[in-house]
Each structure stands twice: as structure tokens, then as C-alpha cells.
């Protein structure tokens, strides 16, 4: 029988949300429990009690960030009325390029990179899960005739690579106009 995760207490939920807001503003690199606890109105001992360890807190923060990412992806997903790959990528890119989403996306980029170089512990599987999530959404946007073939998988993989690369470039340079033009150019090629 699978082990059920206990429902978090109101205090755990409150502290997780406060820690998440802190992580959005400051990232996760060098996260230390004592300064974090002070900023969010707690103590390191309480955080350890509620999350089990620093890695447990990091896993909870990554799950919270992933929940935001999945909420975005769910808005793009319409498997019963697939919009097509190009319109889906246009919608996703518009969301990714919006300035108000940059804190979440910087946190995503940090977690993605750490998952690649520290594949164990709190970061385990984050990058792979992200790729699978995004490919699943893009597949749901493709009509079944395209989705189910090898070419459909190749096209959504290319679309994801363009989105991810453009996002990293945007986060590094803040040059939204140049990067958006490149995404639009690639979308024109995908239409053909």
C-alpha cells in the first residue's frame, strides 16, 4: 500500500509560502536556514521540525515552484481541442517573456541547472520532470494525427528546445525584443 503524505499544517503551509516568496526574490543558492527563518518569522528548529531537514525544505520549495509551472502549463493544455503546436508555443512564450514571471523563471533555471549538476538529494529529477511536463503539454496541443507520429515528437522537442533556450537567453540578457524575434522566426519555420 503506498504511503500517503500527511496533509501539511496551516503553519507549515504559511511558512512554505513565505519561504517560496523569499526564494523567488533571492534564489536558492546558499540558502541558509537561520537567515531564512528570521526573515519569514520562524526559527531554524521549527523549519527542521516541519520539513524534516534543509533538503526537505528545498524539496518542498521545488514542489511549490513546480506547482506554479504546472498551473501555467495547464492553461495552455486543451487535449480535447488541440490548438496546434505553433499557437501553443506562441501562448507559452508570451507568458515566459512577461516581466512579472521572471522571478519564478529564474528560480526554475536555478533548480533546472542544479538538478543537472547535483542529481541526488533535493534536486533529484527536477530537470527531467520539467522536460516531461512541457513535452506533455505540447503533445496535448498537437492534433492526434501529428501528436502520435515520430515527426510530432520531433517537432515538440524542437519547440521545447527553442522555448528553453530563448528563456535562458532572455533571463541572461533581458533583451526581450531580440529573443522574441528569434522565437517568432523559429515558429515561422515550424508552420512550414
From TrEMBL:
InterPro entries: Homeodomain-like_sf, HTH_TetR. Gene3D superfamilies: Tetracycline Repressor, domain 2. The lineage of its organism: Bacteria, Bacillati, Actinomycetota, Actinomycetes, Kitasatosporales. Coiled coil: none annotated. It comes from the Bacteria. Residues 32-51 bind DNA. The keyword Ubl conjugation does not apply. Pfam families: TetR_N. SUPFAM superfamilies: Homeodomain-like. Keywords: DNA-binding. Residues 9-69 form the HTH tetR-type domain. This is TetR family transcriptional regulator.
Amino acid at each position: 500500500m503506498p504511503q500517503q503524505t500527511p496533509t501539511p499544517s496551516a503553519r507549515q503551509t504559511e511558512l512554505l509560502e513565505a519561504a517560496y516568496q523569499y526564494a523567488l526574490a533571492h534564489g536558492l543558492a546558499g540558502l541558509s536556514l537561520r537567515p531564512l527563518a528570521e526573515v519569514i518569522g520562524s526559527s531554524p528548529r521549527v523549519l527542521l521540525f516541519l520539513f524534516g531537514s534543509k533538503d526537505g525544505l528545498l524539496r518542498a520549495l521545488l514542489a511549490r515552484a513546480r506547482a506554479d509551472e504546472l498551473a501555467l502549463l495547464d492553461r495552455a493544455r486543451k487535449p480535447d481541442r488541440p490548438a496546434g503546436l505553433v499557437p501553443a508555443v506562441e501562448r507559452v512564450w508570451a507568458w515566459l517573456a512577461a516581466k512579472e514571471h521572471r522571478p519564478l523563471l529564474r528560480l526554475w533555471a536555478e533548480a533546472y541547472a542544479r538538478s543537472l549538476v547535483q542529481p541526488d538529494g533535493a534536486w533529484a529529477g527536477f530537470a527531467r520532470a520539467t522536460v516531461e511536463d512541457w513535452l506533455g503539454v505540447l503533445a496535448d496541443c498537437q492534433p492526434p494525427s501529428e501528436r502520435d507520429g515520430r515527426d510530432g515528437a520531433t517537432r515538440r522537442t524542437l519547440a521545447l528546445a527553442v522555448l528553453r533556450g530563448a528563456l535562458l537567453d532572455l533571463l541572461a540578457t533581458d533583451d526581450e525584443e531580440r529573443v522574441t524575434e528569434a522565437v517568432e522566426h523559429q515558429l515561422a519555420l515550424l508552420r512550414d
